[in-house]
Design a protein that fits this description.
- By secondary structure, this protein is α/β, with parallel strands linked by helices.
- It has three domains: 180 residues, P-loop containing nucleotide triphosphate hydrolases (Rossmann fold), CATH 3.40.50.300; 69 residues, no CATH class; 265 residues, P-loop containing nucleotide triphosphate hydrolases (Rossmann fold), CATH 3.40.50.300.
């Protein structure tokens, strides 16, 4: 076998044991696949499938005494990594293999400048002089298209955007031009346009440097965009692998077919207009301006939301779409009155709540409820989920017995066991916790439900279930739903109308089908063009 076809990474029969009393014996079992030079191999699966455990095993980053490799081989250019000492693994990391993590803010040292963190890799692995190291740092920062690298080397992680921080992680990973690059969900937390830039960057690196890329994801849109081959994992097992186009168009395993079928379509389904329904929520000239005052510089103003006008009718879902910093979550927090608007009106059933005092606002709290992105942070870990659900109604005068009956009924509604009300949040999965948050919001019998990125952290199949649940409760309770998301596929499936926000303003609005068919604003067009796998119609095989 010549050098061009010799695998850079060859995993053979790898098994990693879980601690005693875990939900299964092995985190991964008999896993085998390889990655060739100039190849991007995507490992796909939901939470708990074992894809990240596989990557951490390759890097030698398994937590000691918790996860243990008990069988198999992990060959990096022919060397078995499972036989290496900790010191030998440290020498390999960064030099011959590197990893990009999902959340760069937790992977980067907040006390070190960007340049120092990249240079540290060169200090450990090379004999370069300080001048040579600085030149190499700037070179790799230019390679990943970071702006003004000579200035940026002195910046700290908190001074960069999410996309820039991820580029810094990639620059550090490429500093020594390793043979293997492992990317563990590197675009999950990024906006769609930044995600497109990072995916393009990784493809360019793979093509120009001959790097073998092991890309871990749960997003089949990403797979359709960049993968040469695909490995699908479920419950620690490899259930399918093959060429990307073949797997996407003709999946063989039921789990793979389920995952692909669960990917939302970019084509909105037909939804009858709600033009005759009464308006429940309306904002007029809503503005929110943050003022940064300092003794040492002039005050700065940031317009987070400017003259935002929107309305939601009973039984309707309005989607607000935009990237981080567009102002969509600011608008949601103003409507819920978690923050006070600078000016404008917020009308709930015709009553303006924008300027109400705290005492008068309490009467209106019940009318608008919100479901946040992270259900684990939304629920009190020290209280049972039942206590969290009944707290709101009881604070508004509902008796304990009635509140508990309502909680049991809502648990059934969100397809959870009512007998689990005495359990705590950590005893539920992420999707189940989000269902509990929806039940808690519905317990208040609101007129308006706001979902702020409520499904963005969920696996694709769980996401589909929660979207179906939200649509079901909209119909059942005739709710007005304000649905905030950066995921165009999700917006297409659940929203009657779309409002696109950019730099604090609504730049386009209309029925979802019309906006998706013919976006008119250049920013909306850019969002659509950046959506990964936008030209691939997932799930079409299911109807064949």
């Amino acid at each position: 076998m010549d050098q061009t076809t010799q695998p850079v990474l060859d995993i053979r029969g790898l098994t990693v044991r879980l601690p005693i009393r875990a939900d299964r014996e092995n985190a991964i079992e008999d896993v085998s696949f390889s990655v060739l030079p100039h190849e991007i191999l995507c490992v796909v699966g939901e939470s708990g499938s074992g894809k990240s455990v596989t990557a951490h095993t390759v890097m030698g980053l398994l937590p000691p005494k918790q996860l243990t490799a008990t069988a198999g081989q992990v060959l990096l250019q022919g060397d078995d990594l499972l036989k290496k000492t900790p010191g030998e693994m440290r020498a390999l990391r960064g030099a011959r293999m590197s990893m990009i993590f999902q959340e760069p803010m937790t992977a980067l040292n907040p006390l070190m400048s960007i340049g120092d963190q990249i240079e540290e890799i060169l200090q450990i692995h090379t004999e370069m002089s300080a001048r040579e190291r600085l030149a190499r740092v700037i070179e790799v920062m230019e390679a990943v298209k970071l702006p003004e690298p000579e200035r940026l080397v002195h910046s700290y992680p908190h001074q960069l955007s999410g996309g820039q921080r991820q580029r810094v992680m990639i620059a550090g990973a490429l500093a020594l031009e390793p043979a293997l690059l492992i990317a563990d969900e590197p675009t999950t937390a990024l906006d769609v346009t930044t995600q497109a830039q990072i995916l393009k960057l990784i493809k360019d690196i793979q093509r120009t440097h001959g790097t073998a890329v092991l890309f871990i994801t749960h997003d089949f849109g990403v797979v359709a965009e960049i993968a040469d081959r695909v490995v699908v994992m479920q419950h620690g097992l490899v259930v399918e692998q093959g060429e990307a186009k073949a797997v996407l168009r003709n999946p063989q395993h039921p789990y793979t077919r389920m995952l692909i079928s669960a990917v939302p379509s970019m084509t909105p389904p037909a939804r009858p207009p709600k033009a005759d329904a009464p308006v429940v929520l309306e904002t007029q000239d809503l503005c929110k301006t943050y003022r940064d005052r300092s003794l040492f510089r002039a005050a700065r103003e940031t317009r987070a939301a400017h003259n935002v006008e929107l309305s939601v009718r009973r039984g309707e879902t309005l989607g607000i779409v935009g990237e981080s910093g567009s102002g969509k979550s600011t608008v949601a927090r103003c409507i819920v009155r978690l923050i006070s608007p600078t000016s404008g009106q917020i009308l709930i059933d015709g009553h303006d709540i924008a300027g109400l005092s705290a005492s008068r606002l309490r009467e209106n709290r019940r009318l608008v409820q919100i479901v946040f992105q992270d259900p684990y942070r939304s629920l009190n870990p020290r209280r049972s989920v039942g206590a969290s659900i009944v707290e709101g109604p009881m604070n508004f005068g509902v008796g304990k017995a009635e509140a508990q009956t309502r909680a049991r009924d809502l648990m059934k509604l969100v397809d959870l066991d009512p007998n689990s009300l005495d359990r705590f949040p950590h005893q539920f999965s992420g999707g189940q916790r989000q269902r509990i948050c929806i039940a808690r919001a519905l317990a208040m019998e609101p007129d308006v439900l706001i979902a702020d990125e409520a499904v963005s952290a969920l696996d694709v199949s769980v996401q589909a279930q929660v979207l179906e649940l939200l649509d079901d409760v909209r119909k059942r309770f005739n709710l007005a739903i304000l649905f905030i998301t950066h995921d165009l596929r999700v917006a297409a499936q659940i929203c009657d109308r779309i409002a696109v926000m950019y730099k604090g303003e609504i730049v386009e609005r209309g029925p979802a089908a019309e906006v998706f068919r013919a976006p008119s604003h250049e920013y909306t067009q850019a969002l659509f063009n950046a959506a990964p796998g936008r030209d691939f119609e997932f799930g079409s095989f299911a109807t064949a």
